[in-house]
Structures are given as C-alpha cells and as structure tokens.
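ok so for the tutorial part 2 we go from a plain amino acid sequence to predicted structure tokens. step 1 is just haveing the sequence, like this:
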Amino acid sequence: MRVLVACEESQEVCKAFRALGHEAYSCDLEPCSGGHPEWHIQCDALELLKMQWDMILAFPPCTYLSNAGAKHLFKGGVLNQERYRTGLEAKAFFLRFLNADCPHICVENPVSSKIYEMPPHTQEVQPWMFGHPVQKKTRLWLKGLPPLEPTNIVDPKCSCHEAGTWFMRGGKDRQKNRAKTFPGIAQAMAEQWGGICNG
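step 2 — the prediction. this is what the tokens look like for a chain of 199 residues:
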C-alpha cells in the first residue's frame, strides 16, 4: 500500500507503516529527523496530492488554529485580524488534505478555536490510550477509516503542559517537539489501518 504521511519530519508514522511492509513516505518542508531520508520527500506536501495514494495521513501545522493560542487571537479582548487571517489560511491548508482525492484519509490536529468553525472531527485520542502516561488531547478527522481502538490504556502521570516534560521543552525545537506523534499512536495507526486495503 502506498501511504503519504504529510507534514511529518519525525517519521514516527512513516516508520510504523514501513515496519509492516508498506511503501510509506514522510513529507515536510524540513529535513527528516527519523533517520530515514530515503523515505522522506522534502517539499510542499500539497504538491504530492497531485499523485495517487492508497492512504493519506496528514499532520498539518496547528499553531494558528489551536485553542491553546486563543490568548494571542484575542489579545486585550480584541480580535487580532492578522492572526485570524493566518488561521483561515491554516484551515484552508488543513481542508486540502481532508478533501483530497484518496479513499482513506486521516487528518490530525489538536482542539481548535471555535472561531474557525472546523468541520466535525471523528474522534479524540490521548497518548495514555496507547501506552504513554501523558495527557495531550488530539482530534482525528477520518474518511474511509475506522476510529482508532485503544491498545494499552495506562494511568496518565502528567499533562504535557506541565513544565519539565519533553512537550514543553524550550529552545528552537520547541514547536517541532510539540508536533511529534507518540510511537504508540503511530503503531496503532499502522496496525489497525495498514490492512484496510491491498493497494
């Protein structure tokens, strides 16, 4: 099965599908950090939507859509028009993946600000449902794919928003660290969705 993992530099999802024998490729504007540049296409992921894929898993940037950034959107109680327009552009980018010509699609994003009126999501998942004792609510929009089933429910020890966790680590790679997919979730995607079609 040919799988496009769009907006992924970590290659967690790509490697999980590759481990099961699928022809998966990660794609991002950034070089990959997952150790397999031979499976990474460094370009605008929208260009790859012109090709035919059996499955598209997309992790578009959430900086301007996330509800966590609402304080910047309404700074001083007034709508920041420039940030709002940037958020609308991010929504349009998100929708290009959700509406792509592909039979099996998953688009991932955190809880978004209500002002952007995102389409209804299919499900919400947490890392603690897949073996990681962490809270980080993530939404999935699915087409032609069943909801993910939890694989290893554990007691969440912390919130990713707590200081000192890898998720909140500062520095130039802070945004990149926050965007990484937990290995347990990536493995569940590959194992549960990898057999959905024969490609």
